[in-house]
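Forum > Structural Biology > Help requests

Title: Can anyone predict the 3D structure of Cys-tRNA(Pro)/Cys-tRNA(Cys) deacylase?

Hi all, first post here. I have the sequence for Cys-tRNA(Pro)/Cys-tRNA(Cys) deacylase but no way to get a structure on my laptop. I'd be grateful if someone could post the C-alpha cells.
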Amino acid sequence: MTPAVRYLRHTGTQFTTHLYECEVTDDFGLHAAAQLGLPAEQVYKTLLLHHDKQVVTAVIPVNCMLNLKEVAKAAGLKKVEMLKPADAERLTGYKVGGISPFAQKKQLPTLLDTRALQQPAILVSGGKRGLSVGLAPQDFIQLLNATVAPIGE
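Reply #1:
Sure, ran it for you. C-alpha cells for Cys-tRNA(Pro)/Cys-tRNA(Cys) deacylase below:
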C-alpha cells in the first residue's frame, strides 16, 4: 500500500483503485488512460514546477500541455519551470511516473486544472507506476486545499 492510498483511507475519502500494466518509460499518463480504457480527459498527471525555492504541484489531464504562464499566475509567482525529475522524486518521495499529489513528503501548494470540474471523478497517480486512484474533483480540492485554475491547454 502506498502512502497516497494510506492517506486516502485515513481521511475516509471515497475513492477507487485502478491497477494497470506500466510498460513505458515516458508519457505515463496517456499510457495509463489507454491501459484503463478511460478517456484521457478523466485521467490526470501530476507535474512539479518551481521558481527559486518555491515548488508547486500542478495536476492536469494527460491529453493537455501545461500553460506555464497560467501556473505562475495561479501560484502567485513571477514565472515557473519544470522541476528536474530527480528533484521531484526527492521532494515527493515518489518515482517519476508514479508521483501522487497525495501524501508527498512535504505537502506542496497544489493547482488543479479547471477541466476537472466537468468530470464526476478524476484519476490521479496512486503513488507508484501502474496504480491510479479515482475520486470526485471536489474531494481532491478539499483534501489538498487545491486552487482550481485554467493551467492546461
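The chain has a mean pLDDT of 91. The domain at 3-149 is CATH 3.90.960.10 (YbaK protein).
Shout if anything looks off.
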